[in-house]
TrEMBL record, chain A:
CDD domains: GFAT, SIS_GlmS_GlmD_1, SIS_GlmS_GlmD_2
Physiological role: Catalyzes the first step in hexosamine metabolism, converting fructose-6P into glucosamine-6P using glutamine as a nitrogen source.
Keyword Transcription attributed: no
Catalysis performed (reactions): D-fructose 6-phosphate + L-glutamine = D-glucosamine 6-phosphate + L-glutamate
Record localization: Cytoplasm
GO biological process: carbohydrate metabolic process; fructose 6-phosphate metabolic process; protein N-linked glycosylation; UDP-N-acetylglucosamine metabolic process
Protein name: Glutamine--fructose-6-phosphate aminotransferase [isomerizing]
Region (Disordered): 59-93
EC number(s) given by UniProt: 2.6.1.16
Length: 600, 393
């Protein structure tokens, strides 16, 4: 799980150091516990540092490397070995003839490492990656040219990888891909390589996505893609529509706050052209050829799993059999999946390894697969039979906010497409959501609530129906960015155990909308909490009498339960943000986390 | 040297536009369907400006979230001014961002691209001028800033709200200036506790610095009161470089509905069967006009729902307003009370601020102003001013 960057500049191109460092700064969402770069000309120079990218920037002797136009770089999220200088990439052989950066996990590294150690290689790090430069070196020593040595070493690897390598004194970058994303950029100022498009989108918008098993040779003139046999393969060159501005903070203190405030407009984008109120239908153009009436299974991780639970709940309401699974726990021999099943992978990045694995397994079992993602041309979008885009725009903050809201609305529309047709009132409620989120942003008391409870021992959130996944998501947001203990529960479950945790110093957030049976039951649970002296914050549209049990009220506009759950979540996002702000946490880059997790 | 950078002052609330400015600043109010500020940015970009610094304050997240970090390929930087102490103070907030000649203008007044271009041309071709001001001939100069120039354009007098009967030109609030102007902004005593840009310029004129004025033709409109938004929209429809009649490709208009030009219908709008929309109507994003409803001479902001059979004439709505089935905004002229002052015979049917909800069958007498979040029960007749958040039975 990491970000990699490579560059070969043409005459009049940029300094590789600048391209690599700028590229890495846009990939920090993929990891930020150490970083490094290698410039192979005129002779191999490797620089790396534990900590965020700024630590590397201070270490690199830019003046010494000025004018050099070839380089690779890496920003790391640790899987093997602690975040130290030694474990940072690039890794090289003892004589520094080759330097390698890697994203993924080499599953057979222990055996390779043992063999190499037996042959006398002294390892410098605890990483799985370090076997690669030593393997390459072994082939070089046997007289292989760099490309042959690189291919021979890659052939030895099992697992997932996007790997790039440079050779001492050479102006060529070699790379290979298996189960980890890698994209090539073709520009006038040189040829680019990265885990994700933003790393070079300032330089070019002409890109070429590599497929699993591809090798690529980058020179100043362009890129040659070959398969495992060395045969040249054509990968289409695409033009990406990516606005670099979206990756800036626009005057906000944090990307997270910016992205919370972007929700009205990202939700408008999500809905645009997809609702026809005159006809009373939802039209998802991408899914016009889907004709499915069997069961639906969702696979997803983290925040996306909460969206998947929400989607499954909505589908069940529309009389479709639907279940949500954690992608990492999904196995076709334990879940009944066959040709009648639609398996929906929900992944913001489209690169989440656990979700991709589950989707592949479902496809092997004969299921139809659908990716619900924010990232056009991501691995999930390309591998699945169908793709539904949530159109939230780039999200930089590690804690997902606007993409969750857009997943909610996209999945609600999916439910209308697959299940019972929507009523006019349901369609109008969907159309109302963006403006109502704006209202929440304008009127929220979340900051005051956060100030009141910044020193609490723990935070609990409860909800029923559509609000249960939101209770889980609210607690996850709190954990991610405040580092405080937080748990979400189905409102009815509290009394079956967790109530033992509730004290006068554990505020409980209860989501209650409308005044129907669901609301009345949740109010019953709220009373049980109130009688244990826990402070109660209700997130409500004010239609029920729940406010009489509340110490604080976070008000949301009145709408149906589905819309209400989107609005309630915005309140919980803001509470988490302001508590983290009060605790001076690293809100956009929480410790130990990365945005898109491409290892299982 | 050519000027490529501009500072836009967009920090003020615009208190006389309440209750529309309850949640967002005046620059974000709609002129036709786009925020006033977006028209200002258009004028700048058309004149070749590529870097824009926006001084924001009141309701600043609205500006930041709407525009992000670029507008039509020009970069946008934000400077947040916590307290709004006048235009000079606002410009000082951006001082650290200014090292070379700049343009500065107001983000809450519509200004023709021609005025911007004329000021830039004149300043770039004048080596002596510390600042160059855009001027227009305008009948309402007494309400704004007045300037008197010598024959060669050198500014002789610059004042706010001139009261004598000399012939002033109106200060359009568009200035090109050298960084040295900041010396004079630090200088003036705050006038009524506000540091105005005009005081700073007047100081420079008193110190015998060269300040020139350049007179242009073209639109300059300031929306002072809520009903001015109707006139602004009409003016934009009439003007060659204003706003054209359009229906967004993502809007759904029933085949039996009638659109009377000039009218703009934004993205995601729905116009039901038998409805009549226009002339002189601007529907913001995601507005619904129900079956057989009639909307004319009105500015209807985003997410508003106009119920079946309702009629809106000379109406300004905020966002998320719910006009119920069969409600009627009769149309102007009417007497409108703002604070202690009554404006007689204004062409305003009704002003419904953000999230006003009526339950249907409501009649709005001419000149009615309803504050945000007010709820009006079915069958009521309302007139005068309804305070925000109240329920009218």
């Amino acid at each position: 799980m990491c970000g990699i960057v490579g560059y070969v500049g043409s005459t009049g191109g940029d300094d590789a150091v600048d391209v690599v460092l700028d590229g890495l700064s846009t990939l920090e969402y993929r990891g930020y516990d150490s970083a490094g770069l290698a410039v192979p000309t005129p002779s191999m120079a490797v620089h790396k540092a534990a900590g965020e990218l700024s630590a590397l920037e201070e270490t690199v002797p830019r003046d010494d490397l000025a004018g050099e136009s070839v380089g690779i770089g890496h920003t790391r999220w640790s899987t093997h070995g602690a975040p130290t200088d030694a474990n940072a990439h690039p890794h090289s052989d003892e004589a520094e003839r080759v330097a390698v950066v890697h994203n993924g996990i080499i599953e057979n590294y222990q055996r390779l490492r043992d063999d190499l150690a037996d042959a006398g290689v002294a390892f410098q790090s605890e990483t799985d990656t370090e076997v690669v430069p030593h393997l390459i070196r072994r082939y070089l020593d046997r007289g292989a040219d760099p490309e042959t040595a690189f291919r021979s070493a890659i052939d030895q690897l099992e697992g997932s990888y996007a790997i790039a390598a440079v050779f001492d004194g050479s102006e060529t970058v070699y790379a290979a891909r298996q189960d980890s994303p890698l994209v090539v950029g073709l520009g006038e100022t040189g040829t680019y390589l990265a885990s994700d498009v933003p790393a070079f989108v300032d330089h070019t918008d002409r890109v070429c996505y590599l497929e699993d098993g591809d090798f690529v040779r980058l020179t100043a003139d362009g890129a040659v893609v070959t398969d495992g046999e060395g045969e040249t393969v054509d990968r289409p060159i695409e033009t990406v529509a990516w606005d670099p501005e979206d990756a800036e903070k626009s005057g906000y203190d944090h990307y997270m706050l910016k992205e919370i405030h972007e929700q009205p407009s990202s939700l408008r984008q999500c809905l645009r052209g997809r609702i026809d109120e005159l006809e009373g239908t939802v039209n998802l153009e991408e899914l016009s050829d889907i004709d499915h009436d069997g069961p639906v299974q969702f696979v997803a991780c983290g925040t996306s799993y909460h969206a998947a639970m929400f989607g499954a709940e909505r589908l069940r309401a529309g009389c479709v059999s639907a279940q949500a699974f954690l992608a990492s726990e999904y196995a076709s021999d334990r879940v009944p999946v066959d040709g009648d099943t639609l398996v929906v992978g929900v992944t913001q990045s489209g690169e989440t390894a656990d979700t991709l694995r589950a989707l592949r397994e479902a496809a092997r079992a004969g299921a139809t697969t659908l990716a619900v993602t924010n990232t056009v041309a991501s691995s999930a979008a390309r591998e699945c039979d169908h793709a539904l885009y949530i159109r939230a725009g780039p999200e930089i903050g590690v804690a997902a906010t606007k993409t969750f809201a857009s997943q909610q609305l996209a999945l609600a529309m999916l439910a209308f497409e697959l299940g019972d047709d929507p009523t006019r009132a349901e369609l109008e409620a969907l159309r109302d959501v963006p403006g109502q989120v704006q209202t929440v942003l304008e009127t929220t008391d979340a900051k005051a609530v956060a100030e009141a409870y910044v020193d609490a021992d723990a935070y609990f959130s409860v909800g029923r129906g559509y609000h249960y996944p939101v209770a889980l998501e609210g607690a996850l947001k709190m954990k991610e960015i405040t580092y405080r203990h937080a748990e979400g529960f189905a409102a009815g479950e509290l009394k079956h155990g967790p109530l033992a945790l509730v004290t006068e110093n554990t505020p409980v957030f209860a989501i209650v909308t409308g005044d129907g049976e669901t609301a009345r039951k949740t109010i019953g649970n709220v009373k049980q909490i109130a009688s244990r002296d826990a402070p109660i914050v209700v997130v409500t549209d004010g239609k029920s009498r729940v406010t009489r049990y509340a110490d604080h009220v976070l008000e949301i506009p009145a709408t149906d339960d589905l819309g209400g759950s989107v609005l309630a979540n915005v309140q919980l996002q803001l509470v988490a943000y302001w508590i983290a702000h009060g605790l001076e946490r690293s809100i956009d880059k929480p410790r130990h986390l990365a945005k898109s997790v491409t290892v299982e | 040297m050519s000027i490529r950078s501009a500072v836009v002052l967009a920090a003020g609330e615009g208190a006389r536009l309440r209750p529309l400015t309850k949640h967002r600043p005046k620059p974000m109010l709609p002129a036709a369907t786009k925020p006033i500020l977006e028209h200002v940015f258009d004028a700048l970009v058309d004149a070749g400006i590529t870097e824009i610094t926006v001084v924001v304050g009141y309701g600043h997240t609205h500006v930041q979230s709407h525009f992000g970090s670029t507008y039509r390929d020009s970069s946008l930087e934000y400077v947040v001014q916590d307290k709004q102490l006048g235009s000079g103070h606002a410009l000082l907030a951006a001082e650290s961002a200014v090292s070379e000649p700049r343009l500065v203008l107001n983000g809450d007044q519509l200004v023709a691209g021609q005025i911007v271009e004329d000021v830039l041309d004149a300043h770039e071709n004048d080596d002596d001028a510390l600042a160059t001001l855009g001027l227009i001939r305008h009948a309402d100069v007494g309400e704004y800033g007045g300037v008197i120039c010598e024959d060669d354009g050198t500014v002789e007098t610059i004042v706010e709200r001139p009261r004598d009967d000399r012939t002033y030109k109106l200060n359009a609030g568009v200035y090109a200036f050298e960084p040295e102007l900041f010396d004079y902004l630090h200088g003036p005593e705050p006038h009524l506790n506000e540091y105005s840009l005009v005081d700073g310029i007047a100081n420079a004129v008193d110190a015998e610095e060269t300040v020139r004025g350049v007179t242009s033709d073209g639109i300059w409109i300031d929306a002072t009161y809520p009903w001015d938004l109707l006139e602004v929209t009409e003016t934009l429809f009439e003007s060659a470089d204003g706003v054209e009649s359009t229906v967004s490709s993502t809007a759904r208009v029933h085949e039996s509905a009638t659109i009377v030009e000039p009218t703009v219908i934004s993205a995601d709008c729905v116009v039901g069967p038998g409805a009549v929309v226009g002339p002189n109507v601007a529907l913001g994003e995601n507005v619904t006009v129900g079956a057989n409803a009639v909307v004319e001479h009105s500015v209807v902001d985003a997410d508003t729902r106009v119920g079946s059979g309702a009629a809106l004439v000379d109406c300004v709505t905020g966002r998320n307003v719910r006009v119920g089935t069969g409600s009627t905004v009769v149309g102007g002229p009417g007497d409108v009370r703002v604070g202690d002052r009554v404006h007689e015979g204004e062409q305003l049917g009704a002003l419904l601020a953000d999230r006003v909800r009526d339950d249907g069958g409501v009649t709005y007498a001419p000149g009615t102003i309803v504050g945000s979040d007010a709820v009006i029960n079915a069958g009521t007749t309302v007139r005068g001013t309804v305070e925000e958040g109240t329920e009218v039975q």
